[in-house]
């Protein structure tokens, strides 16, 4: 492009020439900004179009009854109680497994692991795993969790499957976040006599947490919409009861029977309704879609709130 | 850099509490659960029965219904993971062998009829009926690239491009249609819009003047305004798909029975016996409600008699069969 060293045409004054060059660069600046805005508008309007179509189709059907009813063959009676409870519990298991494991693995790889061929191979594999189609995880989980570990077609199996699915995303995000912490902070802490663990616990984790949480959000948002691996491990389409409550057993403070309960999830319920002949079920599916978007947004809101709290405490 | 002592992360104690489930305890038996899985075609019927059955038992017995296809359902059934398999075709030889290996024995119970319906766009004025030979001409593998307009099928028809919509290759509908029309299961031309989701086919045919498609009767019944059903001529004059023509056996060869298979071992549990009784007693009404064609009452009582007399197994011998009328099916089932 035009650099200041470019030849000045003879007969043009220095000032005029410089102004011309600057004006041209401003035009490029402006053009790039325009392209960026267009890209943003395109992405946002696609989402807005999809969402508003869903809103128009499903809003009328959205009611308290819809949230508290079980599925039914009659579209007007059908609800999503078992589906949203199933999704919530599966996501809970997923988050509880994927977040500590993913962050732990990321921290180890970034702060503790020596740089050698083995860690390079692990690094490449983790990055590759993030791109593996989700159905593959479903097949792996069917063999491993459902049959080998004998977890059956349960919430635990589904949660672990989705945890595997998003683990690479969390690991990669954790490592990226840790890399943004300047080296002098670690050195400063070490200089004050902190041990490796103290450096990690007091500095590395809190400072990288906002970035880690972004990765966790992306991972969980992907997991909540997954259908293929969940169908593979045997999620149900019609289920008109809830998993046992954790407080149902009088002999234990908290019982974990719900982990082994059969379940359904929101995307499967939507998929089933979309494939029904009755038109009214299509509206149910749209309403369920609205609820799913709402669940994703509130999950994200929670993560953003935690991130905000942490950002406030960081003062470099 | 601020070196003030870090206060504890607010999220960590909550996380620790919630995540403290590392040791999962096995499920204690609460209300008994009846597990059903299999064909998506039979799903609406079993779902309706399950819904009413649970209402009748006020939640003391639980029923779950999954969709994993007829083949997937039999796989789970033969492994003993489910109590009842939904099937849109009789059990096949290989599946019989699988069940024999694991010692799963079963009762075969036809529960309803479905009419595969051939449909065209409502704007199509020239096609009122099609013979089986014409359908074969359209759908056989050698038609690919050769039959591309309606004129190619019948010279009296206009040279309008014929756009085909049909079942995806994983469905029992595809197996049955190809066997009934082309004469060989899973043998079909490939250049058509295939979908496992029948609503895609409904939309396709209703938006395309030259279209022809096929799918289960329920999808036609729900979309009558957007579609036109074609009468099928099997050599005895054109017959339109209606519940009556299926019941009297004249809508041929595209009428097919759908089944449930019930595991003998599961029937030792009283709630499963109750479920099957409930299924057979309420099927006539519920099957009609979900737009399938119920069998005559004697077919359902026949199923229960098999149960009482412990008549296990299938009457199809692992073969698929087309063009079986309801009467023939009942006679056949009685011979077990």
Structure explained in plain terms:
- The complex is a heterodimer of chains A (316) and B (336).
- Chain A is built from 11 helices and 1 strand; from the N terminus they run αααααααααβαα.
- Chain A has helices spanning 14-58, 64-68, 81-112, 117-129, 134-148, 155-179, 183-191, 196-224, 228-232, 266-274, 279-313, and one strand at residues 238-239.
- Chain B has 336 residues and is an alpha/beta fold.
- Chain B has 13 helices and 14 strands.
- In chain B, β1, α2 and β2 form a beta-alpha-beta unit.
- In chain B, α2 (43-56) crosses α11, α3 (69-78) runs parallel beside α4 (93-102) and α11 runs antiparallel to α12.
- The model of chain B is unreliable at 1-29 (pLDDT under 50).
- Classes of the chains: A mainly alpha (316), B alpha/beta (336).
- Chains A and B meet through α3, α8, β1 and α11 of A and α1, β1, α2, β2 and α8 of B.
Keywords:
heterodimer, A: 316 residues, mainly alpha, MetI-like fold, 2 domains, 11 helices, 70% helix, globular, B: 336 residues, alpha/beta, 6-stranded mixed β-sheet, 5-stranded mixed β-sheet, 13 helices, 14 strands, 37% helix, elongated, disordered N terminus
Mean pLDDT score of chain B, rounded? 87
Order of helices and strands of chain B: HEHEHEHEEEHHEHEHEHEEEHEHEHH
Helical stretch tally of chain B:
13
Helix content of chain B: 25-40%
Beta-strand fraction estimate of chain B: 15-25%
Rounded to an integer, what's the Rg of chain B over CA atoms? 24 Å
Largest sheet of chain B: 6 strands, mixed
């Amino acid at each position: 492009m035009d650099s200041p060293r470019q030849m000045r045409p003879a007969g043009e004054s220095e000032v005029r020439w410089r102004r011309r060059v600057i004006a041209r660069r401003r035009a490029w600046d402006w053009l790039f900004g325009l392209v960026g805005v267009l890209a943003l508008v395109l992405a946002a309007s696609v989402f807005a179009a999809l969402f508003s179509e869903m809103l128009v189709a499903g809003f009328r059907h959205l009611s308290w009854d819809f949230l508290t009813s079980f599925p039914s063959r009659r579209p007007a009676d059908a609800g999503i109680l078992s589906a949203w409870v199933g999704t919530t519990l599966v996501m809970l298991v997923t988050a509880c497994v994927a977040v500590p494991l993913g962050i732990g693995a990321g921290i180890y790889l970034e702060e503790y692991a020596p740089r050698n061929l083995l860690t390079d191979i692990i690094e490449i594999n983790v990055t590759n795993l993030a791109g593996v189609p989700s159905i593959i995880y479903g097949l792996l989980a069917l063999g491993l969790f459902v049959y080998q570990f004998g977890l059956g077609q349960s919430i635990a199996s589904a949660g672990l499957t989705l945890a595997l699915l998003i683990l690479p995303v969390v690991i990669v995000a954790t490592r990226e976040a840790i890399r943004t912490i300047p080296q002098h902070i670690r050195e400063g802490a070490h200089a004050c006599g902190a041990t490796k663990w103290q450096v990690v616990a007091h500095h590395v984790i809190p400072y990288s947490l906002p970035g880690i949480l972004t990765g966790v959000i992306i991972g969980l948002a992907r997991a909540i919409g997954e259908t293929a691996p969940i169908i593979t491990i045997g999620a149900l389409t019609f289920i008109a009861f809830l998993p046992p409550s954790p407080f149902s057993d009088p002999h234990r403070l908290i019982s974990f029977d719900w982990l082994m309960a059969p379940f359904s999830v929101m995307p499967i319920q939507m998929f089933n309704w979309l494939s029904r002949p009755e038109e009214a079920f299509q509206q149910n599916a749209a309403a369920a879609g609205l609820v799913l978007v709402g669940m994703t947004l509130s999950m994200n809101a929670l993560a953003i709130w935690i991130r905000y709290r942490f950002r406030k405490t960081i003062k470099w | 850099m601020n070196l003030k002592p870090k206060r504890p992360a607010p999220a960590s104690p909550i996380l620790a509490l919630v995540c403290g489930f590392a040791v999962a305890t096995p499920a204690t038996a609460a209300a008994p659960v009846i597990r059903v899985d299999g064909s998506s075609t039979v799903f609406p019927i079993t779902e309706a029965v399950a819904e009413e059955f649970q209402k009748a038992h006020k939640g003391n017995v639980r029923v779950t219904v999954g969709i994993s296809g007829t083949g997937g359902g039999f796989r789970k059934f033969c492994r003993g993971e489910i109590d009842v398999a939904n099937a849109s075709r009789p059990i096949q030889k290989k599946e019989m062998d699988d069940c024999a290996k694991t010692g799963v024995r079963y009762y075969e119970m036809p529960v309803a009829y479905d009419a595969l319906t051939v449909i065209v766009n409502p704007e199509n004025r020239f096609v009122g009926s099609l013979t089986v030979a014409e359908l074969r001409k359209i759908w056989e593998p050698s038609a690919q690239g050769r039959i591309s307009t309606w004129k190619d099928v019948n010279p009296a028809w206009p040279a309008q491009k014929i756009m085909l919509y049909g079942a995806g290759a994983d469905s029992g509908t595809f197996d049955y249609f190809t066997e009934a029309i082309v004469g060989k299961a899973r043998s079909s031309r490939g250049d058509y819009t295939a979908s496992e989701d029948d609503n895609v086919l409904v939309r396709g045919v209703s938006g395309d003047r030259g279209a022809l498609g096929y799918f289960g009767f329920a999808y036609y019944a729900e979309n009558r305004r957007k579609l036109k059903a074609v009468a099928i001529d099997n050599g005895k004059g054109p017959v339109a798909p209606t519940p009556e023509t299926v019941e009297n056996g004249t809508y041929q060869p595209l009428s097919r029975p759908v089944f449930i298979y019930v595991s003998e071992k599961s029937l030792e549990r009283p709630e499963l016996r109750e479920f099957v009784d409930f299924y057979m007693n309420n099927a006539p009404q519920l099957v009609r409600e979900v737009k399938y064609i119920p069998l005559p009452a004697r077919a359902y009582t026949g199923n229960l008699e098999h149960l009482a007399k412990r008549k296990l197994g299938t009457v199809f011998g692992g073969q698929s069969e087309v063009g079986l009328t309801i009467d023939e099916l009942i006679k056949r089932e009685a011979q077990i």
